[in-house]
What we know:
The protein is an all-alpha fold. It has a domain at 53-118. It has five helices and no strands. Helix 3 (55-72) runs antiparallel to helix 4, helix 3 (55-72) packs parallel to helix 5 (100-113) and helix 4 (78-96) runs antiparallel to helix 5 (100-113).
Amino acid sequence: MISSRAATIAFVAALLAGCNSTSAPTSALQPASLQQTGAAPGVTPASFRMPEGAGCSGDVARWRAIQDNDLRTGHVSQSVYERIKSEIDSAASACASGREGEASAMVRASRARHGYPG
């Protein structure tokens, strides 16, 4: 099990390594959920928690949470988010079908493809 501190460090590293957006977001383009958090643009809200869980379901949940957060904070564009979301959905389907190793490998490949550390 990953300690809370290690998970936080991994998450921050993922955020720093996964910047796919080339322009700063404007407040008009930010999702309503970000506007409701009160967090500054580009800042993960203090209430954010990485999902726990083991195996492929945990891998999928954490990768999805990172991407949802990166979209809300403007670290990825909607088009990049949609591409990654499709990859996450494929991994989730493989996981649900009992192909745990394949699903976890799909998550690792998606993270590497988009510049996030494993």
